Amino acid sequence: LFEVKEASLRDTQRVIAECGRLIKDDPRFAPAYAIRAHALFQERNYNAAWPDCNRALELDPNNALGQRVKGYLLLAQGDSAGAVAAYDAGIRSLSRDFDYPRDFHNRARAHRVLGHLELAMADHERAVALAPEEGDVYAGRGITRRFLGDIDGAIADLTRAAELDRTWGVQCNLWIWEMRMLRNDPGDRESSEIALNAAQRARTEPLEDTYIQVCRGQMSADQALAPTTSPHYLGYEHYYLGARARVEGRNQNAKTFFQ
């Protein structure tokens, strides 16, 4: 069972099949439902993950992984308070074998949304200690440090995230650009241009060119938004349009884009 749980981070299809076999042999085996729910969550198949998660907790209300998968799912739905409660219940039962850095990373995200910044930082520190080579945990801590006003710390974490994981290269460097432009200390203008150039080198998709051009002030809102239909990507574009407006002092425009 431990091997199946470990594989859920790598080979989700194998895990889903193996858990199905275990459940067929013993329909009341709660850990198999919890592990399959985790694998389905990894695949972003939230609708399928929920029944398995609920069944695991119905069979064993103290199942740590079931509680933590519930936290993942609630966080994905935007229920930050519910996610924190589920993570609290699950993390209380953590053992060495189930000590996922992502649990602390995600609970930190939920705490940040709720404004519990010190609690968020405590979870970020645990996540970084558990996974010092994963970019996600540094990106998460960097965002919270920004909310705490620790701009230098935020820039250091976001830089590290981009170094460890290329997929963070554009987003982290654009956040760095924004923070430096807004702070505008000596050297920040030059450093912000370095961040934009780093984002340019890290891009892998055409939409990322759009984000960078928006931040450079080379593309209007109409030009940026017209070709985009995905709500997910429209969210990113509105954020960067808001960031550009804020840098230029157009605070009311920025507020509209951020909303």
Work out the helicity level.
Answer: over 70%
The largest pleated sheet is described as:
none
* Oligomeric state: single chain
Distance between the termini: 45 Å
Q: What is the overall pLDDT average?
A: 90
What attributes does this structure have?
mainly alpha, 259 residues, single chain
How would you characterize the overall build of this protein?
The protein is built from 16 helices and no strands. It has helices at 2-7, 12-25, 30-42, 46-59, 64-77, 80-91, 101-113, 117-130, 135-147, 151-164, 169-183, 188-202, 206-216, 221-225, 231-247, 251-258. Helices cover 76% and strands 0% of the residues. The chain is mainly α and 259 residues long. Helix 5 packs across helix 7, helix 7 (101-113) runs antiparallel to helix 8 (117-130) and helix 8 runs antiparallel to helix 9 (135-147).
